[in-house]
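Q: What would this chain look like folded?
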Amino acid sequence: MLNKNNERELAYVVIIDDVIPIEGYDRVELAHVGGWTIVVGKGEFKKGDPAIYFEIDSQLPEVEPFINMEFLAKKHYKIKTQKMCKSISQGLLMSAQNFGWDIGCDWNNTRLFILDDSDNRHYSDDESRFLTKQLGVTYAMPEDNFRKSNKTGDKYGKMAKRHGKLFSKMPFRWLMKRDWGRKFLFVFFGKKRDNNSFPYWVVKTDEERCQNMPWIVNDKQPFVATEKIDGTSTTFTLKRGKGLFSKDEFYVCSRNVCFDKTGAKCFYDKNVYTEMAEKYDIENKMKMLLNEVFTDCDWITIQGETYGAGIQKRDYSIPTHRFMAFNFVTSKDGRWSTHSMKNLLEANDIPCVPIIDDKYILPDTIEELLKYADGKSVIDDGMREGIVFRSLDGKKSFKTVSNEYLMKFHQ
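A: My prediction, written as structure tokens:
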């Protein structure tokens, strides 16, 4: 689930939507949370109970209460998609009692919450639900943890934070509200290491999973269905220089990290992000677009996926690396529609994700949607990771990951 900063949370409070029997099994049941199904012990939960849910891709810390659970130790404390008792089980459900916590209810008896050992209330319907950091949950994939630990912020914000007392006063506050003012202050107060900060105008890439928004199937507007590529998120952005002597600023980023030079250290042996910028001549093409086509824009951004050999377990039968764009964003219009993006970028020899269906109507259930995610990749006829759905105007989007793919490539 994504938090308000569009960052993925791995552990959070939920309300059990339903618990149903599994035919042929007397000691377990199938709990439903949103669009997720989780195999649980018989009688462990009932409909309406609050619980703590750990999403797939979670790595649990080897501490109590997790360390006392033998089945977790066998999985090295990793939470993955698996088939149990002829059912798909995704995630882990634990009760408040597992942590020595309590369950409470507001005075009007309408909102349940979990009360932790510091008397903090955790509701299931606001930001208080998130427990990822509190419980020490990390990603099961080393690459994702590398990205998280190397997360960077706005270079001007880092400068201001370092000189907090000074920058809280006038005229520094006034200057920090203006683009030219921030640049002026950076000449005197900025440091070289600040320059690899993530561009503040870029919205980081991450799509919500359909299981966390089961109501989406009620939206019967046409969606563009594109193939989801299993690679590493890559962002290129170009900001126009405003002053007389200012130059356009070009940045190459992973999901969380901005690289200030070609070949800068990243998770991989070779910096695949700057490699893609050079391979497709991205900087020159974006400068042409910004200065000849988007003359009324302050910045433009291309976001996509780098994939191929050594990126993920699925290499798409490619011995090298390739890039496919899935977003084109401008300061004036926001995110473009999929068709408009493809027409623009492919005309400039920048590949885009394959379109599976350009007027797809969502089915009535999440189960049908997950089934649709299964299929062959347009790239090499192998198994595809899933589908990303975008509204025709490009403003609304979400993803559906194939359970078959997860069980084969993400174990």
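Residues 11-140 form a domain with the OB fold (Dihydrolipoamide Acetyltransferase, E2P) fold (CATH 2.40.50).
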